[in-house]
Amino acid sequence: MKNTRLIAGAGLIAGLGLAGWLMLGSTAENGGHSMVPPEISAPEGGSIVQVQVPTELSSEAQIGQRGYQAACADCHGKNAAGRNGVAPPLVHKIYEPSHHADAAFLLAAQNGVRAHHWKFGNMPPVEGVTRADVMSITTYIRELQRANGIN
Questions:
Q1: Domain limits of the chain?
Q2: Cα–Cα dist 138/109, whole Å
Q3: What is the pLDDT of residue 43?
Q4: How far is CA 70 from the centre of its chain?
Q5: What value does the CA radius of gyration of the chain take, rounded to a whole number of Å?
Q6: In the prediction, which pLDDT does 29 show?
Q7: For residue 44, what pLDDT is reported?
Q8: Neighbours of 101 (CB within 10 A)
């Protein structure tokens, strides 16, 4: 009985270790995920994607738009269209809610994130933004995404 538990525990630890190794072992070269970013033809610093801005934003998204402009636009570009050579577009299928939940934006802003979809390098934490700021910014990004057919 004791040996059975020991073997089961060792198997569980080995399985978790393998799963972690496979997840962390992904490289930017192989994308690490099945979603492959598009080839970028924009000039250095130029917008990577075209973004249609909705005619109306919710009041929460309007707050988020101001926060985005203050904390995110320098890297991720106007209306989250990305900036070639700087940072990816957030209005992109890669960031749809089913692949990157709202919490992923919060974690990225708080802790930074290791490059895994794009070849822009790691994203550092964003200084000076609160959880509420990021949630409003995420609302703005989600409304932009929906206006561009990303649900």
A1: 1-30, 38-147
A2: 11
A3: 75
A4: 18
A5: 19
A6: 39
A7: 78
A8: 12
**pLDDT band, very low/low/confident/very high, at 24 (cuts 50, 70, 90):** very low
* pLDDT: which is higher, 8 or 57: 57
> In one letter, which amino acid is 72?
C
Q: What is the dihedral of CA 81, 85, 86, 90, to 10 degrees?
A: 30
Over range 96-100, report the average pLDDT.
95
Q: What is residue 85's DSSP assignment?
A: T
Contact 143, 54 (CB under 8 A): yes
The fold for domain 38-147 equals: Cytochrome Bc1 Complex; Chain D, domain 2 (1.10.760)
DSSP result, 28-66:
TTT-SSSPPPPPP-SPTTS-SS--PPPS---HHHHHHHH
pTM, 2 dp? 0.74
Q: Which amino acid is at 27?
A: T
Q: Name the nearest CA neighbour of 150 among 102, 82, 76, 98.
A: 98
